[in-house]
Inverse folding.
């Protein structure tokens, strides 16, 4: 058993970072959060300041967790970190960021690079190397964008890092990346065992510009004296390699065996399904998984909390003001009227593609669409229709799993969206399957704690976590409501294809 009594985890999200302190039994001792912004300097450009957001938030959270609990830093056995998985940050030899971090698939600036790489490799080679079309979440396309558009940054780059790689390097001085993330997000630059595929680096970077691929629960290094002074932890505390936020969140919900599915309702919806065999499908991403001898199907939308936040800020200012005055959460206020509207929002269907879309359509130029508007409709109908649209998108992914013979045995929901139980009931009704919520719904920072526990020997392996993670709430589908949703769902599936050309024409006009 590892020395100490506690484990600590920190996750950096799109708009908020979260920290968690647990004991060695997985019981949560304390949590904390730190809000931050996301920069949008141009259409389809989304960025974070790595030092001002990522490192600042990690240090703020670890210091506060220690202070608020009175924990002796010497009693913390290990630290786990996760961040937005498919980010790209170039740094120099002193670990100084050379530009703002380019965020995950929501950032679609690399459209030209994707088109070039698709032609460069050819369709068959793309399928062999990527398992699907190249998409905006692929870090290699982001690296190529920097090479093409910011040559002075490219020339100075010592390492191209993900968010987690950057924070682990700040903590330990070592450059590593989870080998699962290396395969999932940095393909075709890594072998399954974590070795860099030097022969594939040519169009992108030099092999030495990439971090070393390691197992997620390996100890990447130990907190340095300088880092300890900044984050409040003891010098020498073990730090695991860590992973992306979505895979850490999947572990936090108990996705630890084939048939387990995670629905992560955050700024986007991210979906993981643990499988026994590799799935190849252009609409989603099949890969190895964190857990030895398993595979995963990963999928991610751009639109979830980004859409509900857009509605809150633009359509419900009175709810925001009431929350500021100490009344209930704005989202709860918004649902008071929405929950009275019947399934189908009285004839409204919304394509919630306000920030383009990743899976299953993989189209950065997709746009939002509302169809069926009549004088009887209110902003409440619009909001409910948007929530239903996100649920229809989730259902599309579940159907893809079924097409490949994967029967979801347990669907676990996690993330900020799960606080809205009415919305989660809509999701259960639309997909026609029970939706479970874990007893601990903190998310990725809790998964970081558990994986740090594996890394330092508190837990034997991932299977050992089954004794720690248990569901607490199950929402059963109302099959009568499910039947009501079916015709709307069918039209939802057809609307994008029918309107894609108009979306692209509008996007081209906007770009000039």
């Amino acid at each position: 058993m590892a020395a100490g009594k506690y484990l600590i985890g920190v996750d950096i999200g799109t708009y908020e970072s979260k920290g968690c302190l647990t004991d060695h039994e997985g019981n949560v001792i304390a949590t904390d959060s730190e809000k931050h912004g996301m920069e949008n300097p141009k259409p389809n450009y989304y960025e974070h300041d790595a030092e001002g957001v990522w490192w600042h938030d990690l240090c703020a959270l670890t210091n506060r967790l220690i202070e608020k609990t009175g924990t002796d830093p010497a009693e913390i056995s290990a630290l786990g970190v996760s961040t937005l998985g498919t980010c790209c940050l170039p740094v120099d030899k002193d670990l100084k960021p050379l530009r703002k971090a380019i965020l995950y698939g929501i950032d679609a600036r690399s459209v030209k690079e994707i088109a070039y790489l698709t032609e460069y490799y050819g369709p068959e080679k793309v399928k062999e190397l990527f398992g699907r079309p190249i998409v905006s979440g692929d870090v290699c396309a982001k690296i190529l964008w920097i090479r093409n558009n910011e040559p002075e940054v490219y020339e100075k780059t010592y390492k191209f890092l993900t968010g987690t790689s950057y924070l682990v390097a700040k903590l330990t001085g070592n450059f590593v990346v989870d080998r699962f993330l290396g395969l999932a997000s940095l393909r075709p630059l890594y072998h399954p065992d974590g070795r860099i595929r030097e022969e594939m680096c040519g169009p992108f970077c030099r092999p030495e510009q990439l971090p070393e691929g390691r197992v997620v629960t390996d100890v990447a290094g130990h907190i340095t004296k300088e880092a300890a002074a900044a984050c409040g932890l003891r010098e020498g505390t073990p730090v695991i390699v860590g992973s992306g936020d979505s895979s850490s969140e999947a572990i936090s919900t108990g996705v630890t065996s084939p048939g387990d599915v995670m629905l992560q309702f955050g700024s986007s919806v991210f979906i993981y399904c643990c499988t026994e065999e590799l799935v190849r499908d252009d609409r989603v991403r099949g890969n190895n998984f964190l857990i030895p001898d398993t595979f995963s199907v990963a999928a991610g939308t751009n639109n979830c909390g980004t859409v509900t936040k857009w509605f809150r800020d633009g359509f419900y200012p009175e709810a925001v003001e009431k929350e500021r005055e100490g009344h209930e959460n704005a989202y709860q206020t918004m649902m008071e009227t929405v929950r009275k509207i019947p399934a189908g929002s009285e004839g409204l269907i919304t394509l919630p593609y306000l920030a383009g879309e990743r899976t299953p359509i993989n189209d950065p130029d997709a746009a939002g669409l509302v169809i069926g508007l009549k004088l009887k409709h209110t902003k409440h109908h619009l909001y409910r229709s948007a929530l239903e649209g996100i649920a229809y998108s989730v259902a599309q992914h579940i159907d893809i799993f079924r097409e490949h013979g994967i029967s979801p045995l347990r669907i676990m929901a996690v993330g900020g969206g799960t606080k809205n139980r009415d919305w989660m009931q809509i999701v259960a009704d639309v997909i026609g399957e029970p939706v479970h919520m874990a007893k601990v719904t903190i998310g990725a920072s809790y998964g970081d704690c558990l994986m740090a526990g594996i890394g330092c020997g508190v837990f034997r392996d991932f299977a050992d976590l089954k004794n720690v993670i248990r569901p607490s709430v199950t929402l059963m589908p109302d099959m009568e409501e499910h039947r009501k949703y079916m015709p709307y769902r069918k039209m939802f599936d057809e609307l994008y294809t029918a309107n894609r050309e108009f979306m692209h024409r509008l996007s081209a006009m906007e770009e000039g």
Summary: The longest strand covers residues 16-23. The radius of gyration is 22 Å. Residues 6-247 form a domain with the Nucleotidyltransferase; domain 5 fold (CATH 3.30.420.40). The first helix runs from residue 50 to 69.
